[in-house]
Design a protein that fits this description.
heterodimer, A: 224 residues, 8 helices, B: 7-stranded mixed beta sheet, 4-stranded antiparallel beta sheet, 43 strands, elongated
Amino acid sequence: MSRSGSGQTDPSRGTYIAVITNRSTTLVIRGFMLFSIGVFLALVLNLLQVQRNVTLFPPDVISSIFSSAWWVPPCCGTASAIIGLLYPCIDCRLGEPHKFKREWSSVMRCVAVFVGINHASAKVDFANNVQLSLTLAALSIGLWWTFDRSRSGFGLGVVIALLATLSTQLLVYNGVFQYTSPDFLYIRSWLPCIFFAGVITMGNIGRQLALYECKLMSEKAHQD
Amino acid sequence: MTVRERLREKISAAFYRHGLLCASYPVPIILFTSASILACCYPLLRLPLPGTGPVEFTTRVRDYTVPSHEPQGDLGERPDWYRGPPVAYIQQVLVKAAVSPWDSTLVPVDVFRSPLGRVFSLLEEIRNHVHNDGSGVRSLEALCLQVTDLLPGLRRMQTVLPEHGCLLVSPGNYWQNQRELFDSDPDLLKTVHQHEPKGLHTSATLRDLLFGVPVKHTGVSLYSRKRVVTYTITMVLGSYDARFLSSLRARLRQLHPSVNCSLREDHMVHVHFKEEIGMAELIPLVTTYIILFAYIYFSTRKIDMVKSKWGLALAAVVTVLSSLLMSVGLCTLFGLTPTLNGGEIFPYLVVVIGLENVLVLTKSVVSTPVDLEVKLRIAQGLSNESWSIMKNMATELCIILIGYFTLVPAIQEFCLFAVVGLVSDFFLQMFFFTTVLSIDIRRMELADLNRRLPAEAGMPPPKPGPLRPREAPPPPRPSPYTITLQTPAFRNLRLPKRLRVVYFLARTRLAQRFIMVGTVIWIGILAYTDPAGLRTYLAAQVSEQSPLGEGGAGGLPPHLGGASVFPGAGGDPASTLSVLPAPAEPTPLPENQSQGHHGAPREGVPHQAQAPPLVPQISWGAEDEEGWRRLSFRHWPSLFSYYNITLAKRYISILPVIPVTLHLSPREAIETRHPQDTRHPPPPSLKTNDLPADLTLYKVAALGLAAGVLLVLLLFCLYRVLCPRNYGQNGVAHGRRRRGDLPCDDYGYSPPISEISPLLLRGHSMDIECLASDGMLLASCCLAGQIRVWDAQTGDCLTVIPKHGLRRSSSSGCWEQRDGGGVFDEDEGYPLRRRTTPRPALFEDQPDLTPLIDTNFDSQPPSHLLLTPPRDGFDFGGLVERAYLEHEPPSPGLTASYPSPSPPSGPPPQRRRSLGYIQPPVPQGQGTPDWESAVWAMELRGNLIAAGRSSGKLELWDAVEGSLRCSNEDGVSGITALAFLNNRIVAARLDGSLDFFTVDINKPLGLLQYRGDNIPPSPCYSSEDVISCQLTRSVQCAHQKPITVLRAAAGRVVTGSQDHTVRVYRLEDSCCLFTLQGHSGGITAIYIDQTMVLASGGQDGAICLWDVLTGSRVSHVYGHRGDVTSLVCTTSCVISSGLDDLISIWDRSTGIKLYSIQQEVGCGASLGVISESLLVTGGQGCVSFWDLNFGDLLQTVYLGQSSDGQGVRQLVVLNNAAIVCDFGSELSLVYVPSVLEKLD
């Protein structure tokens, strides 16, 4: 037994190196997946918001997809990649691995609810902006409670949502970016909640991807 | 707390009873549920069907008034959208114009130039028409719909479509309604075409909008055969004035009379448009649906361990969908009409209701003990999950109720639907899904039962693996030997999804059937639908191509073109295909053949429509009445949308068309000609009018056939790719098994036969008793006390201990002394060892190793054996006594019948089990090396063999040189088990004591670095080393009864004894850490590995899992009837075999039995795990490989030619993915190629 143990040191070091190199490539892959998910969601949700203001027959679908500034979807993608990588990392650092509902079906449910929240904010006519804000806040917190329930997730979500809202406001005040909609308060009222829900969703996806990767790693280790 | 507990208990009990009910009466409950679903969905019938097509409503023109806004109850057939004024009234003036008579001097452009030119005068007429009666003067300006700017994106249409004025469109818009522009336009067609969009377009094009008739019917083309130009002038009126319109109609009719026009003018059609889903809305919708399907996919993927996974997934989806339908139906029943877009909120509703409960239920029911009755399993599973289900449901209801209090109407409605949906989903789960689950589980058990009854019928006879002994391949086995397999349902366990789909397709021949059905449907479509369409299409084409000029007589059907002419109504298809019936004209000549006649029609009066044979026929048919129907249904919405007017959920009223017939003289046509018009070539002559039609028919048929063949080929290829196996031919010509393919005879595949062939190691003369290996070397010891060391890689015999010659002479001498009988050669000494066949061939073809072996045993340097000087003469009393003791013949007559004091015939019973009634042997004499006492235990580490003898003596042999390095005689009781770990040897003795030895390697003085305790973990001894073995500690009363099992790993030594206890010692200080009690019988099997997992099995059939760190029992299951004979663990499961010939696989963490494999009676109890998923078991003369994940028998490898008697009792898995097992007196080395592949 001891002999076999000593014999295995060399290959195990080799696999360790392989795992290390693997890890960086998988990190890149994961980041890329998160980025593309973020870009896609940004485009689709932007379309939802655009629908609120356009007529029934938009002259050109493609132009309405890319109606906002060109850098918005990449920004969303980058942000979602960062968030999606940050969440498992923070779980790892805090030493409390996220165990709640770690399944793809749950993640899909979460994404669906997130799109639903967007849909509601775009389609449903609210009486006033306070009502809109309150409803969206309740929905977002419900999303967190249903799919996350981790304190770190909540904290990170709130912080990122606040930062994102602040930066958007700064951009708007500096004139880099402007809201298409004339009712300025309307957008300001849903923006933080949407950001929060988006952070929770992307974190969920990122965690699930990380978990998948972990599983892959452990399987590989077992095989070795 | 207590209330909660009580509530929980009550809920659990209620669920239990409910589960019993559901499982007891499945059919009535399913009927009841279906009835209630249908009843709840009944109100849905009254809801309008979704669809975005426009809806029409026809009223009479005569008494038309603008409908009021208030709904009027009594008007039954009036639709509810017919309220208030329409967006606009559409008045079309349908112009048909032709140059007549047609002259051969005319060029093709003349067909449409002058008719189109007339549009300007008509427009002038219409614009300037003023109706004056008593009430005032009305003109078009006052009535028409005034439009403003076009949408910003439509700049390029600005020149064509009117802005800031009446919405009045006509072909004249191409030229800004100016005659001068038209006249100076050299190429009219180019002007028309330059506004057409490039590529595919789905909605109405500008050409459609301006001409008001489909492009095909306009006749504005160089190749038009009819030479009749059709277009409309479309007026969009904002208000309705019957008198103005009728005066306009009368005026136009008066100016341009249409002789044979019989259009009805008394109906106006109101067209209501639904809200249309644009592309921009479709993308998020499609996204949500994709997410929904991903959710359903990932959810149903988790259903496992059921008979029909697909069936249950379907049931789950049906549950959710029908609960949604029920909720909508119930809400409608109580007067709440859905206002939300159903398609949009549907995915969210599904997600909110979710499939979780269904999956939880399935998992819970499936994880109940398999041996329970179905009813009880369902009930137990339900009651286990009752609390969580109720809790989840309450939580969801609460969340939805919170949503209800947001007081936003849309959200409230959504919540209402969701609440009703949740409740009905719960109802359906409890009644529908539970029942379906019970049926499924019952089916599974039935399938198990069926599988068990015809034990050998279900499986294809596996062929024996090709044997490869050294000499010659044996003939194939006459009667193949099968191992029956149990519980096939569990074999679906953890199959990869992809494979499962493929297997499903293969099993049900789905691809074949799809191809068949697809072909049949396709042929059917070809035979019925397409030819009909083809025929009308051909008829239209033929009529278009036919020269209508010569058929001037009234007998001719006026108009054959158009989609409304169906052959079924018209009579025989011949008349539709042949276009020239023409009863009035005796010889109707095609136009291009009648070139010679042109002189005669020249004299004809040009303005007479009916006179000459070459006058293009202008006919008015029923299809002109509502010509707008032939346009795209997006025609009007797109026209209005250019001005940012939506027609969604509104309606327009279309007034009856005003027909205008224009006949132009050739002279006029020539006069209006543009100079460039003549450069267009004349139309190609048409020699054969019918041939193109036939050709088209053949072309279409050939193309269709080709496409069909291609489709079939494609599907066939797809099918071959998906199901590459030729199932149905079991076990014939299977190639080398690829890595990804898993065999599964459930799906019609036979286990593949790969090139696993055993390597027989021969040399022992008696049954092999002990087997030890360290991966590189392999040591075996037979009943005769001979130890052989083999190379585990090649199977070569390296060493024989004791040396052969000495052994032979001494044994014969001994027997001479003792019995006074004949001289027995060793090879002949045990002729009756085997019960039935002594297999003489085996001994004859055995390679004579005698010359290879150094038989000079006496020359062995006795210097190492200082403690035990060799005695002169050997006493074999011990050996005989041991044989007697060991096998303890109950009747002395049996032994007397044997000619020699050999052990009794037949395979000796397993020694571990027979230990219970072995008397402690008489202490032996202190001779070294003592050949007289048997080796009872052996271990191999490095190149040291530790052998424990029945005399209580521990010997250390050099495995390579075959020399005795050291021995220890401190104990007197026989050593029953040995463990050799690092530099320590632990010996368990028959009297229950446990001895700890330390092996010290003292290098010669020059090599000091290995002195003392710095012994490397991997001992490598050179022949110069002085090896000493010292007893460090002896635990006298480790157990009350003989120690049966001894295992050491991870610094722990675990012993199991007949006294029902397991003890754990620490290896370093031989201190007893725990005494584990829990078995109610003697311990028969123990497993411990580096991960500190400890499993023990006893004579009571129980298996216990222990935590070695704390000494607590993790789980305790009764797995076998009778002794547990062997235990192995993998990282995920525990595998046990018992005397009841059952191999059971348990989940290591939960202790739940995953499945069990029934083996044949009398199979060996040996087990080995090669990799995480490959299990090997020893059988009667064979070893079987099993896939642990699926419980599949992968292969059975036969070790010898004859199948009788020889069970594999010991089985050692080597590091290099080979296994070694004993097979009578032979060893069998079996390489497992697939595993080797995997390890690479």
